[in-house]
Amino acid sequence: MRRILCVEDEDAIREVIALNLRMAGYEVAEAGSAERALELLNSDNTGFDCAILDIMLPGMNGFSLCESIRRDSATIGIIMLSAKAQESDKINGLAIGADDYMTKPFSVSELMARVEALCRRVNRAAPEHQGDSRLVSGAFILDQKSRILYKNGEPIDLTQVEFQIMELFFANPGIAMVRDKILEGVWGENYFGDVKIVDVNIRRLRMKIEDEPSNPQHILTVWGYGYRWNA
Questions:
Q1: What is the CA radius of gyration of the chain?
Q2: pLDDT for residue 123
Q3: What are the phi and psi torsion angles at 157 (to 5°)?
């Protein structure tokens, strides 16, 4: 059974989310604060597939909680919730490791759809591969079994979304890929979110794999279109 951590200080909202998740067949742990969420994460031996984090929490806020969770796990899916609609909040959340972002008020059915899509991606994190599971592109090796990217033999920590973007690039070397195609290939064709989520994840990837992120040599921008992988 897929396990979800729901972190929301407003009891009514948290209870509605948790109820709908349980009705959909998920196991749910609830926390009204980031501190309680960290207690649950630290005491849990099984692990969570996905965490839903409100940004405006008492004490430690959702951004700090997201960073803390991401430091310990690159695989857990993270969806951030906020009453703020500012673009900067969305970009900040995605830049520190969140996989998705929703602004309140939101449709519960849409949240359920995003949780389901994110859990599917997380559960693809350890596929069974026959034979050699490594994809090689120049100085990079993408190990699909261990879900680790290597550059010149050195491992690079990637979130599952980042890893899937790299899989897409490795499968399409030298091909200009429109943002919508990347969005569909990684987030799924029924994803409701903004295509800008692609740009934020590309910026995050460049910080990790490029020698000079401001002058990328591998993930190249195709202006007005999308991105192209150059090994």
A1: 18
A2: 65
A3: -75, 125
